[in-house]
Amino acid sequence: MYPEERQQEILRLARANGRVDVMALADGLNVTAETIRRDLTVLERAGVLRRVHGGAIPVERIGFEPALAARDSVLISEKERIAKAALAEVPAEGAIILDAGTTTARLAQLLPSDRELTVVVNSPVIAASLALKSNLSVLLLGGRLRGKTLATVDDWALRPLEEMYVDVAFMGTNGLSAERGMTTPDPAEAAVKRAMINASRRVVLLADHTKVGNDYLARFGSMSDLDLLITDNGLDAELADEVEAAGVRVVRA
After folding, report:
1. How far apart are CA 230 and CA 219, in angstroms?
2. What is the Cα–Cα distance from 155 to 160, expressed in whole angstroms?
3. Angle 187-198/155-162 helices, nearest 10 degrees?
4. N or C: more exposed end of the chain, with fewer CB within 10 A?
5. What are the pLDDT digits (tens) for 17-26?
6. How far is 146 from 149, CA to CA, in rounded Å?
7. What is the largest CA-CA distance in the chain?
8. Contact in structure between 129 and 108 (CB atoms under 8 Å)
9. Is residue 57's pLDDT more than 90?
10. Per-residue pLDDT reduced to its tens digit, 109-157
11. Quick check: 104 and 170 in contact, CB under 8 A?
12. Which residues neighbour 68 within 8 Å (Cβ) at sequence distance 6 or greater?
């Protein structure tokens, strides 16, 4: 088993069981405890596990919010497939919102050059990637810049959204569940996300399978606010059924 395959199996076990133990992993995967510790270090640096005494816990279970660079380095192929599938939801003309996030940033890179669109963003990083596309009118929401996500928040971001109404909002999330809806760790960021949803005719959520079934501190939308979930084929069938039972169409890329 290659290191990358072993690390993916460790992450799968951590998410399935709530935590993993170094010695148990070493026995189960037939490697040394030191090899497992190195794997856990790699996964922690990627922002998907948090090391604890004797093992590790998936970040989803402890509400830890990894920084943007860490989140951008995991599940790359899944995020790219989700972004490609989301292109089908981009209108031929009009206005869209791109929420700050690593998957929405990939959609921004793929936006076609033959459509005249107004794109509202709260991420200077995404705004910069779109600025040179002559067919796009880019509106960057102001406000306080959060270091973790590089998203603008607070009043200067919220006020313009009160006066907008766009065709589609492409949203990101930290958590999605049938019980709690869409959630994120930071209340200020949740407020902007909520305003984006209220400013949109349709809401499309771009979220890899690790987000589904998890809840965080601040709720920014219910399942009834959501028109479509685009995720990857790693989503558990039971969780997908729960989302669809709540009235949300699910596309697995």
Report:
1. 19
2. 9
3. 10
4. N
5. 888 999 999 9
6. 6
7. 59
8. yes
9. no
10. 999 999 999 999 999 999 999 998 999 999 999 999 998 788 999 999 9
11. yes
12. 102, 125, 148, 149, 150
Residue 106 predicted with pLDDT over 90: yes
Three-state DSSP at 146 gives coil
Nearest to 166 by CA among 191, 136, 203: 203
Task: Give Cα separations from 27 to 33, 41, 106, 144 (angstroms).
Answer: 8, 18, 39, 48
Nearest C-alpha neighbor of 176 from the set 219, 116, 134:
219
| Strands across the sheet containing 175-177 | 175-177, 181-184, 218-221
Please report the pLDDT score of residue 82 as a whole number. Answer: 97
Q: What letter represents residue 110's amino acid?
A: L
Residue 60, pLDDT score: 65
DSSP string, 60-102: GGTT----HHHHHTSSHHHHHHHHHHHGGGS-SSEEEEE-SSH
Q: Which residue has the tokens 């856990």?
A: 40
Tokens standing for residue 99: 């929420």
Determine the average pLDDT of the residues in 173-201: 95
